Amino acid sequence: MASNPALRRLLAHPWFLGVLGILTVFLVWLLTTASGSVDKLFLPSPGAVWDAGASQFQRGILVGDAIASIRRVFLGFVISAGLALPIGIAMGTNKVICRLLEPLMALIRYMPAPAFIPLLIIYFGLEELPKVMLIFIGTFFFNALMIMDAVKFVPHELVETALTLGGRGLPILTRVVAPYIAPQVLDTYRINMASAWNLVIVAELVAATEGLGKRISLAQRFLRTDEIFVGLIVIGLIGLMIDLGFRFLMRRACSWAN
Amino acid sequence: MHLQVSNVSKSFGEGRDRKLVLDGVSFELVSGQFMALVGSSGSGKSTVMRLIAGLDRPSEGSIRLDGQPVRGPGSDRGMVFQKYSLYPWLTAAQNVAFGMSLQGRSKAEIRERTAYFLDVVGLADAGRLLPRELSGGMQQRVAIARALATEPKVLLLDEPFGALDLQIRESMQEFLHDLWRRTGFTVLLITHDIEEALLLAGTVHIMAPRPGRIVQSVAVSLDRSDLRHLRVSQPFLELREELASCLRGLDGALL
Fold first, then answer.
1. ipTM for the assembly
2. I want to staple B129 with a disulfide (CB 3.0 to 4.6 A). Which of A95, B133, B170, B188 is the partner?
3. Is A225 helix (H, G, I), strand (E, B) or coil?
4. Which residues 174-193 of A are in CB contact (within 8 Å) with B?
């Protein structure tokens, strides 16, 4: 069948099936809406979604919303990641700190972050702070506990070798533990970044003046399903880009671990 | 260099769970000597090594290096482990340099000594390779070079070839013997392999399990000019069989 070498290379390409899956769904969507069997109020056509997106883009709304959401996610996540790193490492290396904090964190981790929204609004009002705090609360405990686990699984031989080579204290941390856990830390961030995106949309659905989530809840009010689709697709694409960015960083910075 | 292990016992756990893993172990090691501790798993041979390295403390008895009691790990006792012996994110050369930079040596000195010790272990061309690009035998040679580069008074080898294929293990034994003869460092080798101990060590201590203790000590005087020949020579095979039956007897007593 696939006697053509170029064709065979295409079929064997690692992305081939993934692209095929996306195209299939797109095609089903296109055909369903073209056949007119579904009310376009429920399922707008790809063309209508494109037009809605283009219109939002021209009015500057799309980019403004995206920037607002991205800023919240990054602000909350950078604080979360920055604090989780030293605390996770401290918990992974020090038994007392671990025993003190782990039960507390394990408890808070199971409280659904969106349930904090009413409290955050009461405490911090409707501005940026409660949204950033929500992302922090929703990701910090996962980040810290996952980094703690990464530290606990550093092979003791690597640490003990450094000790028998004359290493002490801080250099063990910076030159043995840190490089060893770097790939897992990046992977932890990559995974928890997805929750950060979930949370920013939830926060904006509740209270915001701009943002991709806010635009979706406005679109719902006016039954603009095409704009809801625009929001969903843009959120998905931004998330995918961040995910790929982390993978790229990991391949570049931690090539030894691949 | 004079290492004294005097009447060392070690137990782990507390109260009813307390378990004696080492019972009254004594031996001495002096400069240039190659000593081996042989025993099955549970004989406490690795515990002896960890105590000497300062990674654990003895429950009783004392360990002294040149008269000074061992209080913790230090670069005067270099160690090579069986697993995870190298830092996987560092190249072979960076691994060799690692210990020297922890010691705070100058960059020029580190560069020079790294090249020298890579050459000593026959890996002058492999300096830029990552550990995963090296064979298991090459990795262990880099680990030995890294330990030697920090100028330890004694080199502690904990089953260094235990994870290698038989053929590679034999060539590594020849490599280690050759290296020891050329450089004359002091070695304490931990192994479960009687042949390995008899081939390399001048003194072999046989250890028995539960609790770990030395049951027999043998001074080995064999002609080591040709290790390949020695492996199959009559006196070697006889000595090996004698010690093997001694070890079997120890295990048999437990069954």
1. 0.87
2. B133
3. helix
4. 175-176, 179-180
